[in-house]
Design a protein that fits this description.
By secondary structure, this protein is an all-alpha fold. It is 77% helix and 0% strand. α2 packs across α5.
Length: 307
C-alpha cells in the first residue's frame, strides 16, 4: 500500500518534470514554429494514450453536457491554450513563462467565483490582487504606466497570460468531468481530439513553409514534452491526487516555478532582471496565500498541471 510520503514524492517529481517543459519547449521553438511543436508533441502523446482511452472508453461521457465539457477541455486546454502559450514562449524567456504559468491557479479561482459561484474570501481577494500586480510587472517590464506592447518579451508574456485565461476556462468547464473518476482517460481523449485541429494546421503550415527540420536537441525537446511532461507526469499527478488531500497538493504548486526558473538559469543561462524578480515574487506570494489555506477549493486541485 503506497504511503502518503510516497504519493507526496511522486507529486513533487511531477512538478519538477513540468518545470523542465519550458526549457524543452524553448529548445524546440528555436528550430520550429509553435504549430509544428504542438502537432508533433500531441501526435506522439495521442499514440501513447490511444490504448488507454480505448480500454477506458466506457468511462467517457455519453450525455450531451459531458461531451461538450470534453470538447471544451480539448478546444481551450490543448488547442487555444497551447497556441498562445508556445507562441508566447517563442517570444519571451523560459523564466517568465515558468513564473507566469503559476498564476493560472489564481485565474482559475477568479473564474470559479464568477462562473461557479464559489465564495470570494478576503484572503483569496488579497491573493488575486497581489498575483495580478505580479503579472502586470512581468508583462510591462516593471512598475511603469501602462503602454502599448510592441513585440518582444512583453508581447510574449501577454500571450502567455492569454493562454492562462483559456486554460482556466478549460479547467472550470471540465472540473465536474475530471472529478468523475477517470481524469487520465479524459485527458487522453482530449489530446486525441485536439489532433483534429493540430494535424490539418501542421499540414497547412508544411505546404506553405516546407517540411520542418529538427536537430537532435529539437527532437529531444518535443519528445520530452510529449512523453515526460504529458504522459509520465500526468500519470503520476493523477495517481498522487487519488491518495492526497487538497491541503497536501496545493502548496506543491510552488515547486514548479522555482524549479523552472533554476533550470532556465542553468540550461539556457537566463538571468532574470529586477522586474522579473519583483513580478515573480508577487505571483508566488499570491499563489502561496491560496496554497497555504487550511481549506482548499476543489477547482484548484482538479487540474493544477499545465495542460
Amino acid at each position: 500500500m503506497p504511503t502518503r510520503r510516497t504519493a507526496l514524492l511522486v507529486v513533487i517529481a511531477c512538478n519538477l518534470l513540468w518545470a523542465g517543459s519550458y526549457v524543452a519547449g524553448k529548445a524546440a521553438l528555436d528550430e520550429v514554429p509553435f504549430v509544428t511543436l504542438n502537432a508533433v508533441r500531441f501526435a506522439i502523446a495521442a499514440v501513447i494514450f490511444a490504448p488507454v482511452v480505448w480500454r477506458g472508453r466506457h468511462l467517457l461521457p455519453r450525455d450531451r453536457g459531458g461531451r461538450l465539457r470534453l470538447l471544451a477541455i480539448a478546444a481551450f486546454g490543448f488547442c487555444g491554450n497551447k497556441s498562445l502559450e508556445f507562441l508566447g514562449l517563442s517570444m519571451t524567456t523560459a523564466t517568465d513563462t515558468a513564473l507566469l504559468i503559476t498564476s493560472e491557479s489564481l485565474v482559475t479561482l477568479l473564474l470559479a467565483v464568477v462562473l461557479l459561484g464559489e465564495t470570494l474570501r478576503a484572503r483569496t481577494a488579497v491573493a488575486l490582487c497581489i498575483g495580478a500586480l505580479g503579472v502586470y510587472v512581468l508583462v510591462e517590464g516593471g512598475l511603469v504606466a501602462p503602454h502599448l506592447l510592441r513585440g518582444g518579451q512583453g508581447s510574449g508574456d501577454a500571450l502567455v497570460v492569454g493562454s492562462l485565461a483559456l486554460e482556466s476556462v478549460a479547467t472550470v468547464s471540465g472540473a465536474r468531468l475530471m472529478r468523475a473518476g477517470a481524469p487520465f482517460t479524459v485527458t487522453g481523449a482530449a489530446i486525441i481530439l485536439s489532433m483534429l485541429v493540430w494535424a490539418p494546421a501542421e499540414i497547412g503550415w508544411g505546404l506553405h513553409s516546407g517540411a520542418p527540420h529538427l536537430s537532435t536537441g529539437g527532437w529531444a525537446g518535443i519528445v520530452y514534452l510529449a512523453v515526460v511532461a504529458t504522459v509520465v507526469a500526468y500519470s503520476g499527478w493523477f495517481w498522487g491526487l487519488q491518495r492526497l488531500s487538497a491541503q497536501d497538493v496545493t502548496p506543491l504548486l510552488l515547486v514548479q516555478p522555482l524549479a523552472g526558473t533554476l533550470i532556465a538559469a542553468v540550461v539556457r543561462g537566463e538571468r532574470p532582471g529586477a522586474s522579473t524578480l519583483l513580478g515573480g515574487a508577487c505571483v508566488l506570494a499570491g499563489v502561496a496565500l491560496i496554497a497555504l489555506r487550511r481549506e482548499q477549493p476543489e477547482t484548484l486541485v482538479v487540474d493544477s498541471g499545465p495542460w
